[in-house]
Design brief:
Layout lengths: L2 E10 L3 E4 H5 L6 H8 L3 E4 L7 H15 L9 E5 L10 H8 L6 E5 L5 H15 L5 E7 L12 H4 L5 E10 L5 E9 L7 E2 L31 H5 L6 E2 L1 H23 L8 E4 L4 H11 L10 H4 L6 H11 L8 E8 L3 E8 L1
Helix pairs in contact: 3-4, 8-9
Length: about 350
């Protein structure tokens, strides 16, 4: 049975740089406040009415395909991870297939938010191992800035997120001990509303207001789709109970990394590079201390791009590779935690 290797990798971030000082012009915040809590200095915002989640994914995909030494016609399956699709439906997978003029291959959309890329990698790995597909294009892309609350009310969420896309081409490899060694996926839906974007939706308030999620009571939500009440009461923006999310993240991040290491017989010191989901620099630093890894074994770029959710791991992995920090034979660990709650890890011998 073959393993799955990353044959090509690419990323795309929009040109527009938005600094913390820029955000301070529209909400009550400042550079020091944001950096102390998140480590973020700036992020990228896509061009409204010109760029979309799909078009950013296309740009990243073009680079990954070229670096893999194949053409778009060689791609036999598409996996697209995002929480910010162009349309409510259909998903971005088919839109990317259309935009790139690909053959009529299958397209799967992954809705696991910050864990989306790791989930997609695990799914692709099974397809490759089974022999079903030979060239899988896995994309993670996000257009967060289109749906954030740019007021002081929304600053706790808005300052964190940025736009961008990353992509990889996955292929089988017969090289002994190379490629994806193991993946581990988990979820806990009991925490769902603590980090969520629930309106518009068909819940009708069923799960809202019954626990301390920070949402208004259920009877304010109205019907299944977008209502004026939702707009008037700012119920159409993402919600995050920051302290609650942080508490779970710093527990589950190291837990799922140790799970991968124990499965393969490795120890933390065997990791050549840890590429965590770029959720919050303070979370990454906490995990680094737990694993006792030196600075040169952990790659963070949230300072430049903010949290790009499903795109954050492939963007960071690609940057690390371009900077020569990912080399042939290296043991690379990917880990993510996010809305759902979902979390996962992957261990790769490059």
């Amino acid at each position: 049975m073959p393993n799955t290797k990353i044959a090509g990798i690419g990323y795309y971030v929009p040109e527009r740089v938005v600094t913390n000082d820029d955000l301070a012009q529209v909400m009550d915040t400042n550079d020091q406040w944001i950096q102390e809590r998140t480590g973020i200095k700036e992020r990228r915002y896509a061009k409204k009415h010109e760029e979309t989640t799909t078009t950013m994914g296309v740009e990243a995909a073009k680079v990954a395909i070229e670096r893999a030494g194949i053409t778009k016609d060689d791609v036999d399956f598409i996996i697209f991870a995002t929480l910010s699709p162009d349309y409510y439906f259909p998903g971005c997978g088919v839109l990317l297939q259309r935009e790139m003029g690909m053959k009529q291959v299958g397209a799967l959309d992954i809705r696991n938010q910050c864990s989306g890329f790791v989930y997609g990698l695990s799914v692709a790995d099974q397809f490759i191992k089974s022999g079903m597909y030979k060239n899988i294009l896995l994309v993670g892309a996000e257009f967060h800035s289109i749906g954030l609350d740019f007021t002081t009310r929304g600053r706790g969420v808005t300052v964190i997120f940025g736009d961008g896309a990353g992509a990889v081409v996955l292929q089988p490899t017969e090289e002994e001990g190379k490629g994806v060694l193991t993946t581990h996926l988990h979820s806990d839906g009991s925490q769902a509303e603590h980090l969520s974007y629930i309106n518009p939706g068909c819940h009708g308030g069923k799960f809202v207001g019954k626990e301390d999620h920070g949402y208004p009571e259920a009877d304010t939500f109205g019907g299944a789709f977008l209502t004026q009440d939702m707009v008037d009461n700012a119920l159409v923006y993402p919600h995050m109970n920051g302290q609650h999310v942080f508490k779970f993240a710093v527990q589950k991040f190291p837990e799922v990394i140790f799970e991968a290491l124990e499965t393969t017989g490795y120890k933390p010191e065997d990791i050549d590079l840890l590429v965590p989901h770029q959720a919050n620099l303070r979370i990454s630093q906490f995990v680094q201390r737990i694993l006792k890894l030196p600075d040169d074994k952990v790659f963070n770029n949230i300072q430049k791009y903010g949290n790009t959710t499903a795109a954050s791991i492939p963007i960071a992995l690609c940057e690390a590779w371009e900077e020569g920090k990912v080399k042939d034979g290296d043991l690379i660990c990917l880990a993510a935690f996010g809305s759902g709650f979902t979390w996962g890890s992957a261990l790769i011998r490059w």
